[in-house]
Amino acid sequence: MRSTLAECEAAPQAGEAKRCATSLESMVEFAASSLGTRDVHAVAAAGASHAASPAEMYWKIALPTSPMPGAIRDLISPASSVGSASKEDTVGN
């Protein structure tokens, strides 16, 4: 929890747009504001369990050059992030 909050509150890196999303709705609002349009459509993943979640698919479509922050990934799919800490999550902890 501390590392997620620290990542969220940290200043964005050069060229990174950042906002702390506390819900799926706020994540969609951030994506829409980043795109400069409210004309967004939901997508759904079908198939194997290793498929990206709908929110991850949307993020990749809406913001293809911006990686999804770990805090948002954890918010939309906390079970999938267990045991999958990134290098940034473990440095200095």
Topology:
Blueprint: H1 2-9, H2 24-35, H3 54-62, H4 70-76, H5 78-81, H6 87-90
Walkthrough of the structure:
This protein is an all-alpha fold. The chain has 6 helices and no strands. The protein has one domain. This is BURP domain-containing protein. Residues 1-93 form the BURP domain. Pfam families: BURP (PF03181). It comes from Oryza rufipogon.
Short description:
By secondary structure, the chain is an all-alpha fold. The protein has helices at 2-9, 24-35, 54-62, 70-76, 78-81, 87-90.
Question: Which short descriptors sum up this protein?
Answer:
single chain, 93 residues, mainly alpha, 6 helices, globular, 47% helix, disordered C terminus
Q: What amount of the residues lies in strands?
A: under 5%
Query: Could you tell me the mean pLDDT?
Result: 73
Taken in chain order, the helices and strands follow as: HHHHHH
Helicity range of the residues? 40-55%
Number of domains: 1
- Separation of the first and last Cα atoms: 12 Å
Biggest pleated sheet: none
The class by helix and strand makeup works out as: mainly alpha
Number of E-type strands: 0
Seen as an oligomer or otherwise, the chain set is single chain
Give Rg in angstroms. 14 Å
Query: Which residue ranges are poorly predicted, with pLDDT under 50 across at least 5 consecutive positions?
Result: 84-93
Shape: globular
Number of helices: 6
